[in-house]
């Protein structure tokens, strides 16, 4: 299955899309070394302390980056999610391009209720943005599309970290 925006892509983008769609897993070497950090994240999120959440989010990200031996990415944890008429932004990935490092931003509170984002949602958002980084740095894709394969890769990371 391809998503509807596929038909609006250029030939080159379509080819990147199809390559992305075929990759369905990201295999961590030994996920059990990262799992304790992820378990701690659940508790730290509840403490509602931005600096601590950011420090741990950076630790988890760099553990995954090291595990997969890809180039580093900066991580920022921001307080309240921006919202607009299409909904709330949960996370953002900015590729390296002109800046030195690629950058991931995640938001720790929802815009509407200003509540701390639920642990699983937060982790999924982080892994989603990391998957954009992996598209460029691990799989060598020139663009990062939301394909079915992309969402499978996100789920495969999630399962290795949570359900083992
Ligand atoms: Zn995305």
Number of strands: 5
Report mean pLDDT, rounded to a whole number.
Answer: 91
Proportion of residues in β-strands: 5-15%
Distance between the termini: 29 Å
Instruction: Please give the radius of gyration in angstroms.
Output: 16 Å
Q: Major beta sheet, specifics?
A: 3 strands, mixed
Q: Detail the poorly predicted runs.
A: none
| SSE ordering | HHHEEEEEHH
Q: What characteristic shape results from the CA principal axes? A: globular
Spatially, the strands of the biggest sheet line up as 1-5-4
Helix content: 40-55%
What class, by secondary structure content? alpha+beta
Summed up, what is this model?
The protein is of the alpha+beta class and 164 residues long. The protein has helices at residues 11-22, 35-47, 50-68, 119-137, 148-162; strands at 73-80, 83-84, 87-88, 91-94, 102-109.
Topology (elements, then pairings):
Layout: H1 11-22, H2 35-47, H3 50-68, E1 73-80, E2 83-84, E3 87-88, E4 91-94, E5 102-109, H4 119-137, H5 148-162
Parallel strand pairs: 1-5
Antiparallel strand pairs: 2-3, 4-5
